């Protein structure tokens, strides 16, 4: 009976040790994955900031007017060219 109890305790001890090793390994792999995801998040936040700045620059009314006149050859209509349609 004593040998059986000792064998059970040794097996339980080995199983616990294996469980601890597995848990530490899993923790390390998850930590590495978390670090990669945080780095990716930071890069995306930087890119988002750049895109917001670019959008603000492109959407600026003077910029739109400049592109319309230089690239598209557009201009404001003369007063005689404006027609008002009334219902």
Automatic annotation (TrEMBL):
- Give the top-rank taxon of the lineage listed in the UniProt record for this protein: Bacteria
Question: Might you report a single GO cellular component term?
Answer: plasma membrane
- Subcellular localization, per the record? Cell inner membrane; Cell membrane
Q: How does it sit in the membrane?
A: Single-pass type II membrane protein
Which GO BP terms apply? FtsZ-dependent cytokinesis
Name residues in a coiled coil: 27-54
Major localization class: membrane
Supply the alphabetized keyword list.
Cell cycle, Cell division, Cell inner membrane, Cell membrane, Coiled coil, Membrane, Transmembrane, Transmembrane helix
The membrane spanning regions, by residue number, are none
The UniProt family comment states: Belongs to the FtsL family.
Job of this protein:
Essential cell division protein. May link together the upstream cell division proteins, which are predominantly cytoplasmic, with the downstream cell division proteins, which are predominantly periplasmic.
Q: How does it assemble?
A: Part of a complex composed of FtsB, FtsL and FtsQ.
Name listed for the protein in its UniProt record: Cell division protein FtsL
């Amino acid at each position: 009976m004593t040998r059986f109890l000792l064998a059970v305790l040794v097996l339980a001890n080995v199983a616990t040790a294996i469980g601890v090793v597995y848990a530490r390994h899993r923790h390390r792999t998850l930590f590495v994955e978390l670090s990669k995801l945080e780095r990716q998040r930071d890069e995306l936040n930087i890119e988002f900031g750049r895109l917001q700045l670019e959008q603000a620059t492109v959407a600026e009314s003077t910029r739109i007017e400049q592109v319309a006149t230089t690239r598209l050859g557009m201009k404001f209509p003369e007063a005689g060219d404006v027609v008002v349609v009334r219902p």
